[in-house]
Amino acid sequence: MMTSVSGSAAGNSARALGAKSLEDVIQVEHDFAKDSVATGVKKSFLRFVAPDGVIFRPKPVPALATLEADEDDSPSDGFLDWWPVMAGVSSSGDLGFSVGPWYQHLTKPPANYPADVYGYYCTIWRRQADGSLKFVVDGAGAFLRTTVPTRPKGSPVARLPIPNEARKVGAEGATAEVTALEEKLGAAVRADARAALPGYYYSGAWVMGSHVEVVPGKAGWAAELGRRPARMAFSHAGGGSSSSGDVVYTYGNVESLDPQMALRDATYLHIWMRRGGRWQIVFDGIKQRRSFD
């Protein structure tokens, strides 16, 4: 009886930690965006980036050094704003992510570049030693060009269920499990990406990367995968795991093997969560060089 009570109390404590951390992730994303509008993109990104953070430009590069080398900007140059509409977190509360629309306005845009452009972002956050959240990946999303997202600022945030499976594998074990799955998936997408990927998706997964509004779920997957190459090659570059071993992210280069559809300097980002005793992809994004660049 004592073991059962103790286990129940531990489970309740873990769920409470995850629930609080999920709200922390949503709040820090709002704080990050607010700071970007108020102080400029470079200053805000340097303030919120983790020392080991990665940013997709569109290939993955060390965020800190890349941002420090960027030209200085100020609110008078325009602004970059965004807001979360989907978020998730590990049961340990040390790894989370959010997804949502972004909006960039430039006061003096370069030639052949619109003053207002839109898209979707994905940020992955890790809890630091001091308890703060810093982003470890500013990564793949969707570039809608000049199409205004259908989810306006203030839209409700879809909170993914927090994993509740007690696991003893830890971060290293979880990474090894997902690495094996990614190798299997990598072989399958070389033959038929549109058939292979849905077998790994969570029912409410967000799949994005094209110039079209994001639609979670099976209907959205089919449409989005139809806008991707039929065959692709993944090349793993990095990733990370929660200490609870129930959330893992991976990223790397992706190339088209489909002569009918090219990818331009593309990077993939996968976020995996434990669901029903198995790993599932809850976010799948591809970022490539934008048509305006």
Tell me what the structure shows:
By secondary structure, this protein is of the alpha+beta class. It has 2 domains: 2-159, Nuclear Transport Factor 2, Chain: A (Roll); 170-287, Nuclear Transport Factor 2, Chain: A (Roll), CATH 3.10.450. It has helices spanning 2-39, 41-48, 63-69, 170-196, 218-226, and strands spanning 49-56, 60-62, 78-82, 86-89, 95-106, 116-127, 133-138, 142-145, 158-159, 201-208, 232-241, 247-256, 266-275, 278-287. The strands form 2 sheets. Strands 1, 2, 3, 4, 5, 6, 7, 8 and 9 form a 9-stranded mixed sheet that branches. The protein has a 5-stranded mixed sheet with strand order 10-14-13-12-11. A hairpin with a 2-residue loop joins strand 13 and strand 14. Helix 1 runs antiparallel to helix 2. The longest helix has 38 residues, at 2-39. The model is unreliable at 1-10 (pLDDT under 50).
Task: Count every beta strand, where a strand is a DSSP E run of 2 or more residues.
Answer: 14
Gap between N and C termini: 64 Å
Domain count, please report it.
Answer: 2
Rg estimate, integer Å: 19 Å
Global outline: globular
Mean of residue pLDDT values: 92
- Quote the beta fraction: 35-45%
**Biggest sheet character:** 9 strands, mixed
CATH architecture field of the largest domain:
Roll
Percent helix, as a range, is 25-40%
Enumerate the spans where pLDDT stays under 50 for 5 or more consecutive residues: 1-10
